[in-house]
């Protein structure tokens, strides 16, 4: 429906987004901590990759590094973020800004803080066209109305003059999505896009994202803590814990037979198919503080398989079947559990 | 197991009646504001909770579930309708009787970061209710002992008593919130989204603590949550609310396996599941639009603006509560709908 032609397709073999060995450090009052430690993944156009993990695992920090919106207290200290083959970490700020919108864009969780409260929404949605396509105010406005229609805002022509607070949570999320997909980016990052919404509205937003992804052949990186959303929506999953990737692979395979005890623990904790009155198999304890991540395996304190080697030596990701890897010394034992 | 766990919850003045439910709410209506800015948060709500059972309360924002929780706690007086707690109307109580009743109903809050005073130790937080209810645990020695028992009951260590909230993780803080609610040996605990602020791996731990307490102490819960899989796991019965009305009620498995109200069916189909195709109805039902403003409730059936089955009758007439007995002759399964879904029927 937008008239913009998609940017030139890269070679089918080059992933739209390729993150390799990303490290991010964060200065805190009590010293520097490593919030993201050697995270790697890649995603092609048309595919959805989920970054799955609990609060503080580094998934949002990873996303913000990819789009270059890290908090000043945080800095990328290593690795590469390649978009269509070019490392964005080596680009000048001006070069990176040119990518923001036509190539790479992000949808945040909280639409109320992500939108400008003192500007009518039509102007905000039209802004990418003014900046990147140099359209006139009037043309940008028409584009904004087209997009608002596409994402399902009723009476878009009138509503373009409204301000963010005059919309419901679900409608605001639609506006944010409209803005993010305005220039048909190659890669769309969605950071918990539906967590703040009611279930029935959540389903509508997920459906909208899926349709837009299909129309525009975007690569989507979905950041979430919700296993069911991953199962329903993603092709591949990267499971993060304490700043590291503990397991990755196709969702279907990983969820059917996890190769990391943390993934297994998470899947078992979901109270689906559980028996009422029977305790849920919970993972004991809670994730480590980033300032106190142990030297060996990051999951050792909560792991049922832990032994001496795990305390001594941090496991590196090892191949664990077709397109899969897991960072566990004893992942083979999970098959037998 | 701590001693007090064996003592049964304190009987009411007129003695417990095992045949009546612990809590009976009939036709409760509560509105706020006036004129055009009048918002009817609860509109003729009926619920019933049997002793030692758990009622799950499900619904989206604005459905009235939190207002209902406040009514159950005696914090909001209903405009109409009756609340019976163990046969007594709490809103008719005064003075000492009211105080005695308040002890019997306690609450666990959603946010363990906001609901605990950061300047009080775990022991102070858990023992604070005794400042008001002085004779529940008399004497400093007994209180100290009881705090240790409560900590143990919720899976914390005795050494945690003198630590402060910032030294605890979210899951541990929620355990303190639960211990605090139990300090007065309540009969009913209202849990408002008790695990939704917690990480998944920790959620399961806290749910286990809650189930364990029910088995050990016979606590009755009203469990409010938007997470259907959590509600299904913990509740014996489920009440579904939409815009201030109860639209469906029944035994948990009945409601989940054969929802009768189109809203319940849509809610269940909308919630993503880990294992799609696992048993229950999985056709996806997309609802139109969003919940209407509670200031402007649709005529007739309030769900009709989003209902795929709505007909003319739905706009003109408020639907009756259609009841159906369960397959095994159990309690009825009601739905507030002109055209309830038949058991096993596919979505029309």
Keywords, please?
heterodimer, A: 337 residues, alpha/beta, Rossmann fold, 2 domains, eight-stranded mixed beta sheet, four-stranded antiparallel beta sheet, 12 strands, 22% strand, disordered N terminus, B: 348 residues, three-stranded antiparallel beta sheet, 11 strands, 29% helix, globular
Percent strand of chain A equals 15-25%
Quaternary structure state of the chains depicted: heterodimer
Number of helices of chain A: 13
Shape of chain A: globular
Instruction: Decide which structural class fits the backbone of chain B.
Output: alpha/beta
Tell me the strand percentage band of chain B: 15-25%
Shape of chain B: globular
- Regarding CATH, which class of the largest domain in chain B? Alpha Beta
CATH architecture of the largest domain in chain B: 3-Layer(aba) Sandwich
CATH superfamily (homologous) name of the largest domain in chain B: P-loop containing nucleotide triphosphate hydrolases
Provide the number of structural domains of chain B.
2
Distance separating the two termini of chain A: 51 Å
What is the secondary structure topology, with strand pairs?
The complex is a heterodimer of chains A (337) and B (348).
Chain A: E1 17-28, E2 31-43, E3 48-52, H1 59-67, E4 74-83, E5 86-87, H2 93-99, E6 104-107, H3 111-114, H4 121-132, H5 137-150, H6 156-159, H7 169-181, E7 187-191, H8 199-216, E8 219-224, H9 227-233, E9 236-241, E10 244-250, H10 251-256, H11 261-269, H12 308-312, E11 318-319, E12 325-326, H13 332-336
Parallel strand pairs in A: 3-8, 3-9, 6-7, 7-8
Antiparallel strand pairs in A: 1-2, 1-4, 4-5, 9-10, 10-12, 11-12
Chain B: E1 23-32, E2 39-49, E3 54-58, H1 65-72, E4 80-85, H2 95-104, E5 105-108, H3 122-127, H4 129-132, H5 140-153, H6 170-182, E6 188-192, H7 200-217, E7 220-224, H8 228-234, E8 237-242, E9 245-251, H9 252-257, H10 262-270, H11 312-316, E10 321-324, E11 333-336
Parallel strand pairs in B: 3-7, 3-8, 5-6, 6-7
Antiparallel strand pairs in B: 1-2, 1-4, 8-9, 9-11, 10-11
Helix pairs in contact in B: 5-6, 6-7
């Amino acid at each position: 429906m937008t008239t913009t032609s998609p940017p030139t397709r890269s070679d089918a073999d080059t992933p739209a987004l390729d993150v390799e060995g990303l490290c991010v450090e964060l200065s805190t009052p009590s010293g520097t901590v490593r919030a993201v430690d050697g995270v790697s993944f890649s995603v092609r156009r048309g595919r959805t990759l989920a970054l799955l993990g609990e609060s503080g695992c580094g998934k949002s920090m990873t996303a913000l590094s990819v789009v270059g919106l890290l908090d000043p207290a945080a800095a990328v200290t290593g690795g590469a973020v390649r978009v269509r083959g070019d490392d964005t970490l080596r680009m000048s700020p001006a070069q990176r800004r040119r990518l923001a919108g036509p190539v790479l864009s992000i949808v945040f969780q909280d639409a109320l803080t992500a939108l400008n409260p003192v500007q009518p929404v039509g102007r905000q949605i039209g802004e990418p066209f003014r900046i990147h396509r140099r359209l006139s105010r009037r043309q940008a406005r028409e584009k904004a109305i087209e997009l608002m229609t596409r994402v399902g805002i009723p009476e878009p022509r009138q509503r373009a003059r409204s301000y963010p607070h005059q919309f419901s949570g679900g409608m605001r999320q639609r506006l944010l999505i409209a803005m993010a997909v305005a220039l048909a980016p190659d890669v769309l990052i969605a950071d918990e896009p539906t967590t703040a919404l009611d279930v029935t509205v959540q389903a509508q937003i997920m459906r909208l994202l899926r349709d837009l992804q299909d129309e525009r052949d975007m690569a989507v990186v979905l950041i979430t803590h919700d296993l069911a959303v991953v199962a329903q929506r993603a092709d591949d999953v990267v499971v993060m814990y304490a700043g590291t990737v503990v397991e990755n692979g196709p969702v279907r395979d990983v969820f059917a037979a996890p190769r990391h005890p943390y993934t297994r623990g998470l899947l078992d904790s979901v109270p689906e198919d559980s028996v009422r009155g029977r305790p849920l198999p919970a993972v004991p304890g809670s994730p480590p503080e980033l300032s106190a991540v142990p030297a060996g395996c990051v999951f050792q304190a909560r792991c049922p398989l832990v032994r001496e080697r795990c305390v001594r030596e941090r496991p590196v990701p090892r191949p664990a079947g077709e397109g899969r890897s897991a960072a566990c010394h004893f992942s083979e034992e999970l098959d037998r559990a | 197991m701590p001693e007090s766990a064996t003592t049964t919850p304190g009987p009411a003045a007129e003695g417990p009646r095992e045949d009546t439910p612990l809590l009976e709410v009939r036709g409760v209506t509560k509105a706020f504001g006036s004129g055009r800015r009048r918002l009817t948060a609860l509109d003729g709500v009926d619920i019933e909770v049997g002793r030692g059972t758990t009622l799950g309360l499900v619904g989206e924002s604005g459905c009235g579930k939190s207002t209902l929780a406040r009514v159950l706690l005696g914090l909001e007086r209903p405009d109409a309708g009756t609340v019976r707690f163990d046969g007594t109307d709490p809103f008719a109580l005064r003075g000492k009787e009211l105080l005695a009743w308040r002890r019997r109903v306690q609450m666990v809050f959603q946010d363990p970061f906001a609901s605990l005073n950061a300047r009080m130790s775990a022991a102070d937080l858990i023992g604070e209710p005794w400042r008001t209810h002085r004779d529940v645990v008399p004497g400093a020695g007994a209180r100290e002992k009881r705090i240790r028992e409560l900590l143990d009951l919720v899976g914390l260590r005795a050494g945690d008593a003198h630590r402060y909230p910032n030294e605890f993780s979210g899951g541990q803080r929620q355990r303190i919130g639960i211990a605090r609610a139990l300090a007065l040996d309540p009969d009913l605990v209202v849990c408002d989204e008790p695990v939704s602020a917690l990480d998944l791996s920790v959620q399961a731990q806290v749910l286990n603590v809650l189930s364990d307490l029910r088995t050990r102490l016979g606590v009755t819960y009203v469990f409010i949550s938007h997470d259907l899989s959590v509600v299904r796991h913990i509740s014996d019965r489920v009440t579904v609310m939409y815009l201030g009305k109860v639209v469906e009620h029944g035994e948990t498995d009945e409601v989940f396996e054969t929802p009768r109200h189109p809203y319940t069916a849509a809610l269940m189909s909308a919630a993503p599941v880990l294992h799609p195709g696992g048993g229950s109805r999985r056709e996806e039902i997309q609802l139109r639009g969003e919940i209407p403003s509670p200031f402007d409730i649709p005529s007739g059936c309030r769900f009709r603006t989003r209902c795929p089955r709505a007909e003319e009758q739905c706009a003109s007439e408020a639907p009756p509560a259609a009841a159906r007995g369960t397959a095994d002759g159990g309690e009825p399964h009601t739905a507030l709908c002109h055209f309830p879904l038949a058991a096993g029927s596919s979505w029309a």
